[in-house]
Amino acid sequence: xxTQIVKAQTVVEFGAPLEERITxxxxxxxxxxxVRVHTCGLCHSDLHFHEGHLNLGGGNHLPLSEMGITPxxxxxxxxLGEIIAFGxxxxxxxxxxxxxxxxxxxxxxxxxxxxxxxxxxxCEKPQVIGMQEPGGHADHLLVRDAKFLIDANGVDKLLAGSxxxxxxxxxxxxxxxxxxxxxxxxxLGVGGVGMMALxxxxxxxxxxxxxIDVNDERLKVAVEQYGADLAINSTAPDAAERLRKATGxxxxxxxFVGSTDTATFGVSQLATNGKLVFVGMFxxxxxxxxxxxxxxQLTISGSFxxxxxxxxxxxxxxxxxxxxxxxxxxxxxxxxxxxxxxLRAGKVNGRLVLxxx
Length: 357
Description:
Structural class: alpha/beta
CATH topology of the largest domain: Quinone Oxidoreductase, Chain A, domain 1
Order of helices and strands: EEEHEEEEEEHHEHEHEHEHEHEHEHE
Distance between the termini: 17 Å
């Protein structure tokens, strides 16, 4: 290897502009794998982590320090790169040198009930890449185990890393509705993750999907390019009435916003025995009649990213061409602060992808 340093756009202070920091290139030991990062998707979660807290709604916040995250740290959990070195117990060979891989970032402690059953993403002592461990805003990553690397051959270079977060998040949430594939389901919020969810839903067999958003331009794209069977602007005065008339009530809804308004709208649109899955972390609160939940036999569930097994499943659909790519805008990693400002201002359709090349 000729490169001896790592360049990383680093959070040096919560809320402050990222700064480039240079460290010594690590040498992998044991099962570790060193990956040279080519691209890394920029996610709304990165904005929350940059701010230093998660909005819990009602004026309450969860400080990242309670999750073991304090500056300086390196964001980026949607990384694509190539293997350049590995430890002696990694189970790799020289043939793996240069192989393109997507990094599964939702890594746990490695030895608990969750990690030992393939549910690292539910571990209570997470070691997530881009949070507790340095992420893809660095040009090299040290990954604890080769099992967290997904082969990226045949996958679009710019979008590949985003399947590890927005794609996986959407897929795992939709799987919680899989028994409702022949019934009407709703996708609340068709931004980057929601549009990915729409593409995946139509690709894996959901037959009746309504896109719900406040942006008419996004709704038009949802119908014309991604196959939504119906589009509803939830701010329209007759939105609820039109939706109920067209569908008779939704069997399932995935809320990719997570505001008080979307939660209220979602519950009101569920049919008897309907299921609402919350994904978005806007910071809202759910206020609803508890007797209605009992009378209508509703299920309310949360979903956070997904398992390594679900990631593997998703990529079989992607490689088979069943998941239509969402729009991607390529931005040099040196312009990461501008990219984050653009995303924070809501000016992004699809995904922003940071490149190190």
